[in-house]
Amino acid sequence: MTSILAIESSCDETSAAICRHGKILSNVIANQKVHEQYGGVVPELASRAHIQNIVPVVDAALSTAKCQLSTIDAFAFTQSPGLIGSLLVGSQFAKSLALALGKPLIAVHHMQAHVLANLIDDPRPNFPFLCLTVSGGHTQIVSCESPTKMKVIGETIDDAAGEAFDKSAKLLGLPYPGGPLIDSYAQRGNPKRFQFPEPQIPGLNFSFSGLKTSILYFLQNAGKSHVYKEENIATVEEQKTFIEENFADLCASIQQRIITILLNKLKKAAIETGIKDVCIAGGVSANSALRKAFEELGKKNHWNTFIPAFEYCTDNAAMIAMTAYYKYLEKDFADLSVTVSARAKH
Amino acid sequence: MVMTYTLKQIPQTAEAFWEIASTAHVIAFHGKMGSGKTTFIHALCDARNVKDVVGSPTFSIINEYLFSENNKQKKIFHIDLYRLKDEQEALQAGVEDCLYSDHICLVEWPERIPSLLPNDTLHVFIEPVDTKTRKLRIGDN
């Protein structure tokens, strides 16, 4: 029985997980609970907070899994992409454990792990499958032939989908991160009320910055037009009233457009590749309207659709552990000289 | 120094920009949301033959791109401070390490860190003229 301890520290969250023979035994993400016993708080954003979090998080992952450090067969960490200072904390910690205990080290690509989050629980997709990974920092369509063989066939050329949600929310006056707020307000709105343009990007790539600009002008013009002209700009008072009076419809319409941009490309990818097992992953897959639209699209096109449990959609170490398990089976180990990278190379 | 360009003219504008900014090391891009900062930086990276995918670093804060010039491998840091509240958070995210490295830094939302920016930072201001046209000004404020 192979046991793997994995650490994820690519961005804001510090997380550790234990996987035994492809089954997740624990998945701990630094939060208030972990910190309560240490009397600290979690800073909203601080890569150096990883240093404070990592020991309690790893301890909690081991104790939840009822597992001793000495029984771990390999140590895994997120190698790229991410914030370099944050990645370094996880990689140094994993390297130190591997060196001290004389066990193999496994370097994992964060985006590959998001895709493989779909293999954590049943039902699981059959290979080959497609995965749309959508988060605050990433938007990708990946074609996946095996756990260790996958290819990015489409990605964003500017903003990520989660960023499109958060920045639209900001334009509507919502606090950051506003994506989840848009989701809840949109449930009372009419998604067909306002039309926002769909970008004409060739192939399977995405673009969201044009949509953001179009929303900006639309709000500045108090809904009278999508174009920028100084004489069109409404007074601050008019803009405020327009947003207030149409708030739910604006949220629903913006959300609807972001979702159709995502799903139209996913549909195109499914047609081009002929693949019928289709997944979504990443933090934005928590969006209720996206989940619903994705499942409806899947039904219409006779796809088998898959969405990981929410705790495996946002950044987490369980997906790193799962990916590491498949790399372990292929004996794809890293040596201690391996370095982390901020670059999103595939 | 003012440059006015449409989306189609961005590649030439980026080339011309690099001629003016050839010695600049940290370039700060000021402009409201949707003014086209990321889009212009994308074009600047294309002009330097960056092969990495140039995206928005709003979530990741710092993106790192490689390009080669005179057979040497060089690096561009694309920094986006939108998500940060103050200079303290920028320090914790490792922004200072990039700003005082030997690499080119293209910084969005520089207003968040006025006193962290090196003295010789080149400040650039982008604003819309109409839907497809932008005005870019190089200057002190």
Summary, kept brief:
By secondary structure, chain A is α/β, with parallel strands linked by helices.
CATH fold group of the largest domain in chain A: Nucleotidyltransferase, domain 5
So what's the overall shape of chain B?
A: globular
The share of residues in extended strands of chain A comes to 15-25%
CATH superfamily of the largest domain in chain A, by name, is ATPase, nucleotide binding domain
For the termini of chain B, the CA-CA separation is 12 Å
CA-based gyration radius of chain A:
21 Å
**Oligomeric status of the shown chains?**
heterodimer
What is the strand tally of chain B? 7
The number of distinct structural domains of chain A comes to: 2
Mean pLDDT of chain B equals 92
Distance between the termini of chain A: 31 Å
Question: What structural class do you assign from the helix and strand content of chain B?
Answer: alpha/beta
Assign a percent range to the helix content of chain B: 10-25%
CATH class of the largest domain in chain A: Alpha Beta
Q: Show unreliable segments of chain A.
A: 38-45
The name CATH uses for the topology of chain B is Rossmann fold
- Identify the biggest protein-protein contact and residues per side: A-B, 44 and 31 residues
Q: Ranges of chain B with pLDDT <50 over ≥5 residues?
A: none
